[in-house]
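Deliverable D5.2: sample structural annotation.
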Amino acid sequence: MKTPMHLLLAKIWIHKPHHYIFEIADGIGLRWYGLAYVLGFLGGAWLLTRYAKATPPRSLLPAEKVWDLIIALVLGVFIGARLGYFIFYRPGDLVQNPLVFFRVWEGGMASHGGFIGVVLALVWFARHNKIPFLHIGDLVATIASLGLMLGRIANYLNGELWGKLTDGTWGVVFAATDGGPHPRHPSQLYEAALEGALLLAFVQWRFWRTDVARKQPGRLGGEFLALYAVARCVCEYFREPDAALIWGLSRGTFYSIFLFAAGLALVVYATRKAKEIPAKKSKR
């Protein structure tokens, strides 16, 4: 029996894991995943500095405070994403051995938990530096997709979080990382394109080409959350669930519903608030 042509073509794309850029010893070295985080934060710092130094400035965050914010984000992302991974996906592991939290070399980060950690970090930073929380949130929304894009590319290089089986000739065989011998959707790259590159282009366009960040604080952050949730749900359709379903939905889709609701609420709030300000001025 002959193998169908589409499978022959698909099997050209046999994935070989690339966990390390270089490895000093067994299990010790510079990982692509770690580099993705570093580049994401460096790129974010560069963009935030550009906002502050633009003419006129497009940010209330002074350039000298950019790295303070980045440090807060690093802590928020790490603690939130790490805790989120165990709470949302493997709660038993953390209860049985709390020290497993620190075994970062074993992997395990949840983007939805990272969002919660970032929000808490921003609340603290905004209050400590007396900068409006919604404005800070909008600024972070313009850089978040850069880190998401790089992180998903690293997921692909690691051969993790692969997609469902596909008959398409673009399928990738993830046999080396327990994906089986059949082609699967490279859903990591779908997410890098939609949640990352496309969403990054949109928020950058909104930030530089419109006055939404200045006139409607919170709206850009809301748009980001809502669009991220939609993009994530689309990608989850092609992604193999990596945990038990909730009400027939993958964990990523289920948690994205709450992100979408939060984003929509922010958009509505920011729009109404912007309409109220001219009305108050006219009464005077």
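Annotation notes: The longest helix spans residues 251-283. The mean pLDDT is 87.
The annotation will be released with the project's public dataset once the embargo ends.
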